[in-house]
Automatic annotation (TrEMBL):
Pfam families, A to Z: PK_Tyr_Ser-Thr, Stress-antifung
Major subcellular location class: membrane
Recorded topology in the membrane: Single-pass membrane protein
Superkingdom of the source species: Eukaryota
Protein name: Cysteine-rich receptor-like protein kinase 25
Length: 671
């Protein structure tokens, strides 16, 4: 009898230890992301809305319809819309088995109702499932926001090639997923990438969407990749209606078999672990321990949750601690349906065609309101069209400046990629400046105004906007003119986004237009804000002279000379006014000389010697500011080429500066 207390104490310590372990094991895992919408109304305890919500959430995890739903559930309960009616969507990742799906949704139900204790709308994502509920209609409606974008900080060994593989893989998966039925819209695959890496990926839509809606959602998600995940070995994008992931580490269930392949022969889910405790006398002890552990863990979790919720601000995105995230706000541009585009252009009639660009035709369109727009229809066979489309949509939707072309909307339907811009009646700068007759309408005052407007637009891109943008393809055809001949920088398909503290980028795929490209970019792939400064310097010289950058011909000697070399030679010889367009008068001699001087400062061979665009604007506005003496510019050595071999040399240089078919890759026609 004396030994009994000792045994009891040991057993009690054992039970406490088990409780601690069980408490840790049963603690709710954190969401990858969750969102509580305070703007859609709140409900009170014991209200009809709460009763309906609890009923649906209980039904969601009852595991009675899993085998036929492929992990997708959409339930409704209640009569009064926006009052007591509740709509619930639960969806598991397509490769997740029945047991894991039920477990994930159960965790979601427990945690989301705690973190969003009285909001009528909330959404949360785990790696394996999503839970969403609302008092408004959410079935069959494609929604992009709220979004969550996440990536790790490791880059692929060959960034550009890796991006190509990821893009190709996701695009092929999107079409497969969209063709799924009302039970499952999910596709996964892997593909060999650079340096023997294998890229694993999946895409998924909620099956209540149509094929077209699924495609639109996934392409919209993919358009955000340059912002969050370009070159990263892992990227994930979560949206209410779709999600995607790519990774170099396998993450999908290796036993997954697409239901469409063998719907009748799917393996039965493995017996639950809890099933092993259904018989035997120890079952009651384990049940008691599990209940006590669950109560303890719930009390601990509720305590910490209450403390946390007091500090929580409404409408906040809650981020994972382990990986950096990028929240992208919804764009303010309008999504046009394809029929509206057809109506606006009279079914892309030739009479409305403004020209043919490097990626497809541009049409003039008229909206039902009477507003005129320019519509760029990217060619389906364009090799870089998708990249350009995503870049331009992502960047221009966020940039607003009077010297940048304004993006009004886009269309992504039936494989079409269409961008809708403000209509600028005077087309582009090259339409005027290189035409011997039309250039007469550009007197010096207008040309000087155009130069200064371009400079202000670049300062905004480089320093004043929320994003730091390197345009990479600044040229006369990408400077559009409004009805008052004000310049607007266009075509951001080749633009690059820099971090605020980033000063230099590098790429293996040099794209742009030879003659405007800075030497460090053309030869080595290095680009920075000083690359745009170089292109701006070439633009100044073209505007002042009325000549294209490689169009200075010397018939007597049989040579053609680069404009930069021509300007530098005359500058050194004291005859700089000889390069000025002869249609201009000499009444603005000082301004002309100052522009030539600034242009030569911008095209100096050493990028460190080039001024920033902010400094350039100061140089224009401060006549009393003395300008430094320019050093030797790029393209001033060996710049003369025999006239009879000019076309061959130009072609060879273009091929050297770019990948195949990438010279002058973003040639944009006048609008």
């Amino acid at each position: 009898m004396a030994a009994m207390p000792t045994v009891s104490k040991s057993f009690l310590l054992f039970v406490i230890l088990i409780l601690m372990i069980m408490s840790l094991a049963t603690a709710q895992p954190s969401f990858v992301k969750y969102y509580c919408d305070d703007n859609n109304g709140n409900y009170t305890a014991n209200s009809t809305f709460q009763a309906n919500l609890n009923t649906l959430l209980s039904k969601l995890t009852s595991n009675t319809e899993t085998n036929t739903n492929y992990g997708f559930y959409n339930f409704s309960k209640g009569q009064n819309q926006n009052s007591d009616k509740v709509n619930v969507i639960g969806m598991c990742r397509g490769d997740v088995n029945t047991e894991a799906c039920t477990s994930c949704l159960n965790d979601s139900v427990v945690l989301l109702t705690r973190l969003c204790p009285n909001q009528k709308e909330a959404i949360a994502w785990y790696d394996s499932c999503m839970l969403r509920y609302s008092n408004r209609s959410i079935f069959g409606i494609m929604e992009f926001e709220p979004s969550y974008l996440i990536s790790n900080n490791k880059y692929a060994t060959s960034v550009d090639r890796y991006n190509e593989v990821v893009e190709d893989l996701l695009r092929s998966l999107a079409s497969k997923a969209a063709s799924g039925d009302s039970h499952l819209k999910f596709a996964e695959a892997s593909q060999k990438g650079p340096s023997f890496q294998t890229v694993f990926a999946h895409v998924q839509c909620t099956p209540d969407l149509s094929n077209l809606q699924c495609n639109q959602c996934l392409f919209r998600a993919m358009s955000y990749i340059p912002k969050c995940c370009s070159g990263k070995v892992r990227g994930r994008i979560f949206k209410p209606s779709c999600n995607l992931r790519f990774d170099t580490t396998p993450y999908l269930d290796p036993t997954y078999v697409p239901p469409s392949l063998t719907p009748q022969s799917l393996p039965s889910p493995s017996p639950s672990i809890h099933a092993t405790f259904r018989k035997g006398k120890s079952n009651s002890w384990r049940t008691v321990i599990a209940i006590i552990a669950a109560i303890v863990s719930v009390m601990i979790l509720v305590t910490f949750t209450c403390i946390y919720l007091r500090r929580r601000k409404p409408r906040m995105y809650f981020e994972s601690e382990s990986e950096a995230d990028y929240d992208i706000e919804p764009t303010q541009t309008l999504q046009f349906d394809f029929q509206a585009i057809i109506d606006a252009t009279n079914n892309f009639a030739d009479a409305n065609k403004l020209g043919q660009g490097g990626f497809g035709p541009v049409y003039k369109g008229t909206l039902p309101s009477g507003k005129e727009v320019a519509i760029k229809r990217l060619s389906r066979g364009s090799g870089q069209g998708d990249i350009e489309f995503k870049n331009e949509l992502l960047l221009l939707a966020k940039l607003q400046h009077r010297n940048l072309v304004r993006l009004l909307g886009f269309c992504l339907e039936t494989g079409e990629r269409i961008l809708v811009y403000e209509f600028l009646p005077n087309k582009s700068l090259d339409y005027f400046i290189f035409d011997p007759i039309k250039r007469l309408s550009l007197d010096w005052d207008r040309r000087y105004k155009i130069i200064q407007g371009i400079a202000r637009g670049l300062v905004y891109l480089h320093e004043d906007s929320r994003l730091r943008i390197i345009h990479r393809d600044l040229k006369t055809s990408n400077i559009l003119l409004d009805e008052e001949m004000n310049p607007k920088i266009s075509d951001f398909g080749m633009a690059k986004l820099f971090a605020t503290d980033q000063t230099l980028g590098n790429t293996l795929r040099v794209v742009g237009t030879y003659g405007y490209m800075a030497p460090e970019y053309a030869m080595h792939g290095y680009f920075s804000v000083r690359s745009d400064v170089f292109s701006f310097g070439v633009l100044i010289l073209e505007i002042v002279t009325g000549h294209k950058n490689s169009d200075i011909r010397h018939p007597d000697s049989g040579y053609v000379e680069h404009l930069i070399s021509f300007a530098w030679r005359n500058w050194r010889e004291g005859t700089a006014l000889n390069i000025v367009d002869q249609t201009l008068d000499n009444n603005s001699r000082d301004e002309l000389m100052r522009c030539i001087h600034i242009g030569l400062l911008c095209v100096q061979e050493n990028e460190a010697n080039r001024p920033t665009m902010a400094t350039v604007v100061t140089m224009f506005n401060g006549d009393s500011i003395s300008l430094p003496v320019p050093s030797q510019p790029a393209y001033s050595m060996n710049a003369r080429v025999p006239l009879d071999t000019r076309s061959d040399v130009s072609r060879d240089n273009s091929m050297q500066a770019s990948s195949t078919n990438e010279a002058s890759i973003s040639e944009l026609v006048p609008r």
